[in-house]
């Protein structure tokens, strides 16, 4: 064998060993995972402007995913309509739920036209203290900040009921780190603002950075929310409590192939890898929560 042959052989063996290790690690930690009958997808930005962080899709990639969902025949449900069926007896059947976190303006410019054209319902989680303003918690390396929806844009999107709005807090901070008074303010003020501006009280709350704990779940109930929405859940949580509903994040690197696996439509043997990928990216967003904490405390 020549030197390049040895190189290819040992590279391949190393890669195989890594996959075997990850498979073993994932099964030990999370057991056997399979897609929920109804898969809740999370998107952030839908834009053609490149960005260092991976929480965006181009408008074309988003359209291909939506067209794939449409052609799959899976019903696309409103988030709270689906969650309302969970407590009841009987099988909800299979389906897909579309959600957008943070309420970026690109949901209005990039995603909404596609949703309207294909008639797909979606839920947008708003950060009420940032309406019409620029983002300041995303990747610090990104040049130029991203704008959030204005109330006028949100009202326009709400017409007809295809897009619904729920709460993602007031300031997008890690709520598990706040004291009781600040925590209550985040839950209560965001709820009041959405009710006043859009005429419909939010029922669901998406946890900033996916961070939640027992105190936060109790505070949500007290403030009148019915559902707490996570990113990934601890194993079994989302089945046990409507305050820890798990979702699947869709990011820059996820194409139609990954989507098909996550929806349980293709290659069930690959599902664990998609699940691990989702959990790893969630860990990364926790890192950006601590970056934010550092920046905000420096700026006071
Ligand atoms: Zn968020």
From TrEMBL:
<feature type="domain" description="NodB homology">
    <location>
        <begin position="94"/>
        <end position="300"/>
    </location>
</feature>
<keyword id="KW-0812">Transmembrane</keyword>
<dbReference type="InterPro" id="IPR011330">
    <property type="entry name" value="Glyco_hydro/deAcase_b/a-brl"/>
</dbReference>
<keyword id="KW-0472">Membrane</keyword>
<dbReference type="InterPro" id="IPR051398">
    <property type="entry name" value="Polysacch_Deacetylase"/>
</dbReference>
<protein>
    <recommendedName>
        <fullName>NodB homology domain-containing protein</fullName>
    </recommendedName>
</protein>
<dbReference type="Pfam" id="PF01522">
    <property type="entry name" value="Polysacc_deac_1"/>
</dbReference>
<dbReference type="InterPro" id="IPR002509">
    <property type="entry name" value="NODB_dom"/>
</dbReference>
<keyword id="KW-1133">Transmembrane helix</keyword>
<dbReference type="GO" id="GO:0016810">
    <property type="term" value="F:hydrolase activity, acting on carbon-nitrogen (but not peptide) bonds"/>
</dbReference>
<dbReference type="GO" id="GO:0005975">
    <property type="term" value="P:carbohydrate metabolic process"/>
</dbReference>
<keyword id="KW-0732">Signal</keyword>
<dbReference type="GO" id="GO:0005576">
    <property type="term" value="C:extracellular region"/>
</dbReference>
<feature type="transmembrane region" description="Helical">
    <location>
        <begin position="6"/>
        <end position="25"/>
    </location>
</feature>
């Amino acid at each position: 064998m020549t030197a390049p042959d040895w190189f290819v052989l040992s590279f391949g063996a190393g890669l195989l060993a890594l996959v075997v290790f990850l498979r073993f690690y994932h099964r030990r930690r999370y057991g056997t995972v399979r897609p929920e009958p109804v898969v809740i997808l999370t998107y952030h930005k839908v834009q053609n402007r490149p960005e260092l962080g991976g929480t965006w899709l181009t408008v074309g990639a988003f359209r291909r995913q939506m067209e794939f969902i449409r052609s799959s025949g899976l019903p696309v449900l409103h988030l709270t309509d689906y969650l309302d069926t969970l407590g009841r007896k009987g099988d909800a059947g299979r389906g897909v739920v579309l959600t957008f976190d943070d309420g970026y303006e690109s949901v209005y410019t990039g995603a909404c036209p596609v949703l309207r054209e294909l008639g797909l319902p979606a839920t947008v989680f708003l950060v009420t203290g940032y309406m019409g303003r620029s983002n300041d918690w995303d990747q610090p390396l990104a040049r130029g900040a991203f704008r959030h929806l204005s109330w006028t844009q949100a009202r326009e999107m709400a017409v007809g009921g295809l897009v619904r709005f729920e709460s993602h807090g007031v300031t997008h901070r890690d709520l598990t780190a706040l004291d009781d008074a600040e925590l209550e303010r985040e839950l209560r003020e965001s709820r009041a603002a959405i009710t006043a501006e859009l005429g419909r009280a939010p029922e669901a709350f998406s946890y900033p950075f996916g961070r939640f704990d027992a105190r936060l779940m109790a505070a949500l109930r007290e403030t009148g929310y019915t559902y707490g929405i996570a990113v990934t859940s601890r194993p079994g949580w989302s089945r046990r409590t409507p305050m820890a509903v798990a979702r699947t994040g869709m990011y820059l690197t996820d194409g139609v192939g990954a989507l098909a696996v996550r929806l349980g439509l293709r290659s069930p043997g690959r599902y664990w890898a998609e699940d691990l990928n989702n959990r790893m990216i969630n860990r990364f967003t926790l890192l950006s929560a601590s970056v934010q904490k550092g920046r905000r405390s420096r700026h006071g």
